[in-house]
Amino acid sequence: MLSALNTMLLTDVTAGSRFCTALFGLLEPREDSGFTVTIATGGHPPAYHVRPDDSGAVWVKSVHPKGSMLVGAFPQAPFAQTTFSLTPGESLFLYTDGLTEARTTQGAMLGEDGLTGFLHQRTGPVTAASLIEDTVTLLTSLLDGADDDVALLALSVPGPRPHPTAVSPPPPTPPPHPNTSARSDDRRDRHGAIPASAGSRPRPFPSDHLIVG
Predict the structure, then answer these.
(1) Which of 51, 136, 150, 196 could form a disulfide with 98 if both were Cys (CB 3.0 to 4.6 A apart)?
(2) How far apart are CA 20 and CA 72, in angstroms?
(3) Which residues of the chain have pLDDT under 50?
(4) Cα gap 81→42, rounded to integer Å
(5) Quick check: 61 and 48 in contact, CB under 8 A?
């Protein structure tokens, strides 16, 4: 793809002496989960492969195949590529050089080292949306912002959803037992029942229980 673009720019008389940087990527779904990513670059700034770290920081790896040249500058220009896996919970962050050329409050360019440090020190989630939002916040916090146009692109593979914790239902509440009081005298009638004493009421038994004497 990059070789074809390189040839087109060199042979198109209407394009003049134009050249560009470019990054071409191919994503192939994996059988288990995630994607196999192949990236070819033509003089473009490196992409960043990021994922959460066990320490709470962000693991950051620069994806920058060596040996690539600008697209449209030289005939037979070489373009290198690399392949890696993008698994659940991981993201791929891409941008144009307007981001790394933005000036910090000290007047120096952010650069690739500054961008790597920014990504590594993030404490938020490593998702495509959060990466873009945080990078826009970074740009607005710079004294002069970006002098060149900035394009951002992020891809992320959702991590596995946590399984809901099974909550056992509480044990059933045992039915109340009838209150009984011990008496020293036995005043059962001829049927074996104890008559209610004066001024007191007999306590009914629950309707769903049968008391057998």
Answers:
(1) 150
(2) 7
(3) 180-185, 196-213
(4) 9
(5) yes
> Going by C-beta distance under 8 Å and a sequence separation of 6 or more, which residues neighbour residue 64?
41, 45, 46, 47
Read off the pTM.
0.71
All residues at 6 or more sequence positions from 136 whose CB lies less than 8 Å from its CB, including other chains: 152
Token pair for 58? 């962000």
How far apart (Å, rounded) are the C-alpha atoms in residues 101 and 145?
Answer: 10
φ/ψ (deg, to 5) at 159: -75, 170
Give tens-digit pLDDT for 44-71.
Answer: 999 999 998 877 789 999 999 988 899 9
| Closest by CA position to 39, among listed 55, 62, 16 | 62
- Domains of the chain (ranges, CATH numbers): 2-156 (3.60.40.10)
What is the DSSP code string of 95-152?
E-HHHHT-B-TTSSB-HHHHHHHHHHH--S--SHHHHHHHHHHHHHHSSS--SS---E
Query: Of all helices (H) and strands (E), which one includes residue 62?
Result: strand 58-63
